[in-house]
Amino acid sequence: xxxxxxxxxxxxxxxxxxxxxxxxxxxxxxxxxxxxxxxxxxxxxxxxxxxxxxxxxxxxxxxxxxxxxxxxxxxxxxxxxxxxxxxxxxxxxxxxxxxxxxxxxxxxxxxxxxxxxxxxxxxxxxxxxxxxxxxxxxxxxxxxxxxxxxxxxxxxxxxxxxxxxxxxxxxxxxxxxxxxxxxxxxxxxxxxxxxxxxxxxxxxxxxxxxxxxxxxxxxxxxxxxxxxxxxxxxxxxxxxxxxxxxxxxxx
Amino acid sequence: xxxxxxxxxxxxxxxxxxxxxxxxxxxxxxxxxxxxxxxxxxxxxxxxxxxxxxxxxxxxxxxxxxxxxxxxxxxxxxxxxxxxxxxxxxxxxxxxxxxxxxxxxxxxxxxxxxxxxxxxxxxxxxxxxxxxxxxxxxxxxxxxxxxxxxxxxxxxxxxxxxxxxxxxxxxxxxxxxxxxxxxxxxxxx
Lengths: 251, 189
Hints:
The structure holds two protein chains of two kinds. Chain A is an alpha+beta fold. Chain A has eight helices and eight strands, in the order αααααααβββββββαβ. Chain A has a six-stranded antiparallel β-sheet. The longest helix of chain B is centred in the first third of the chain and has 24 residues.
């Protein structure tokens, strides 16, 4: 291998284990220096593209798959037709098992969320911390955002439903501090509003506080708590009224 | 038989014995971080990168049974990701080669990249490469793939990958001022 061939290979595959390549680099100081420079450029390039990976990324990827699987199971259950007595028993048994599994998953996958009690601080800090970690959230078209919200809610809290929100931008089930819940955002004329629904014990009463520069409301709702966060009071009030109108429970 | 090949066979046996959920969990644990860095660079936006990743992993879950060899998992996953990215962002991908899509202070802050001038220069040099040259270089530097693996992911020959990598690094060095003028000839793709 001559120097020209060496440099060609150095630019194609600087970590090549080709015998001629290794031998040449040991024998030719100029070429060794050349490949060293190429390797250094690769290493610097990799460093320049290095970034912190969100700490909850793995958990969210797993959660997403579990949610989709649950939704598929649920839709599968809906299209089963009864044809024979034996099948009915089998389906009843499957249904009971599905309920058991769903209950088990609901209590584990989303965390038990049973210790919320009066812990306004933990609820708020969890949501705000999560918001700050997500410096940018996607803006989806309204139909996609509503469809996703309803799919997520079907898995997260089967009884809770959301009427179509024409200003819903995004929704996702996310870990928020020690809890997990539905995280969504609304665009109002007075600014963007983030809201979270966290299942569990409800706080005793509605509380409005200023928290880390945000105006926030923690509101007890059926089966959990609604946390609404905004930069302006007007946007917060608008979002709360809108959610009060749109959220309902089929019981 | 070498220790390494024994190890590889043991890994494969263990992989074959796992249930689907365990395989999926391992896939996420082993490759999500590298894929995230690659995704962030391609999408230029954290939330979008995560969205495409979520979709890619869901597709991986659905076709996990088709993955026969544990050692092929990373390449297989990146292939799924690239297809998903192309599907969702085909139009935007063209824009990324435009000058206005160059690295900016805002991008750097949003994506958490190194904000030193040298790092800016490297990222901008990478952006300025033609897509055909840039892609294999990104895969080698960010994904740690070999030329053969890149060839398989891009569905081109190994020699074409080597040519593109050669040209990519050559151009990078010229942009960065490490080389003044082309000196080395190369056979075309």
